[in-house]
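User: I'm writing a short report section on ligand binding and want a predicted complex to refer to. Could you take this sequence and zinc ion and write out the structure as tokens? A short remark afterwards would be nice.
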Amino acid sequence: MTVSYEEALQKYEPVFGLETHVELGTRTKMFCGCITTFGAEPNTHTCPVCLGLPGSLPVINERAIEYTIRIGLALNCSIASWCRFARKNYFYPDMPKNFQISQYDEPLCTDGYLDVAIGGKTVRVGIERVHMEEDTGKSLHVGGATGRIQGAEYSLVDYNRAGIPLVEIVTKPVPGTGFLAPEVARAYVTELRDVLRTLGVSDVRMEEGSLRCDVNTSITLAGSGVWGTRTETKNVNSLRSVERAVRSEVARQAEVLDSGNRVIQETRHFHEDSGVTTSGRSKEEAQDYRYFPEPDLVPVAPASDWVEEIGKTLPELPSARRARLIESWSLSELEFEALRNAGALDAVEATVAAGASPADARKWWLGELARRANDAGIEVAELAITPADVARLSALVAAGTLNDRLARQVIEAVLDGEGTPDEVVAARGLAVVSDDSALTGAIDEAIAANPDVAARIRGGKPQAVGVLVGAVMKATRGQADAARVKDLILERLA
Ligand SMILES: [Zn+2]
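Assistant: Sure. The structure tokens for the complex follow:
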């Protein structure tokens, strides 16, 4: 590509929108009693309804409706008092009925918003609709190099996923974010994922496909007010890819326009390895799907008192939690984002609840523990150390029993399964040596071994003391209080 994102932004304004598919975490499928567990043997969670056998009839999963209402309320949407499912007709091997039961012109939730915090400011992303549908099965193309149907020798279909409740959350177009558009898109999906996780309606695992994004992108000549033609990049399956897909599509469209051509309305595929999109098929229009109201299902008409009751059970949402923690821990927006991005919010909050100061809890979880999680390729929450352990560790440091270096040894031992911090300290005999008499011998040895350094200090160069402190710390295996050692050496050589 010859036009970079930065060059594109000098001339054009990006506009993006996101369609996010979320698999709901209900125990059973949308219209039958088959269970929804991920990773089962292919075609073992199926029945006549989700296989689309003639004569079978769907029944709506009430829990899926409840979950969708929870999502709608959390996204500040209006909840329809009456709506219907619709048939979306298309042929595809992983759609056994040859139509998908979805919602069309009567979605359950409409017209909401989600506030997204980014770089210390807030962007309000409008939500156009939240509607229900069923997931398709999964095709596996075997024998080709790419796993795509092109070049494959044969294809297999697994209908375990067919009929799993899906919710599609569609934003309004988001203009006016300028250079930050790719990051705002990513921040929106991150915030949405956190909301859905907090609501307990989905496990939101992008790597397992329970959260999937299609990214709509267009560009417009800056200041023209005329929106450009949009493209839809399908199945963008990580947060990082959301950002990269917007960035690469903006640059590509700028190149198309700069060379005097027109952007074509089409679906495009995002390539994880190269970070670019390639042309898929030209975009279908709604009429291609011949939508009509689903005749096998009754309308959905949630009673207003039921909706109200669901609203009362919503948990504290991420935006409210953010405001609360920023206030009570005296954080800047950026400090909060660092904690959230490290996945350490729950751990830090639990550590503070267990008695640590917010500053100490943040220090350990964002420092030593984040580093170890990163080395092990896991989330901080998966480390084999509890918030109570970290709180106890902070208390031991605050009391002077441990210094930071010893505390890091304790962390290592706790992670290795040697017990609680107190057990490790007792078993390994780890504690700061603060008894001056115990340090004297080591200090004498360090001075004797480094006569030239001692002479320099005596001669008025106290900054040379670091060498001697280092020698004493080494001799005491890090268990001495370095500041105290320094004072004692300087006293001795005064
Ligand atoms: Zn079934």
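A remark for your report: The mean pLDDT is 92. The chain has three domains: 5-310, 316-428, 436-492.
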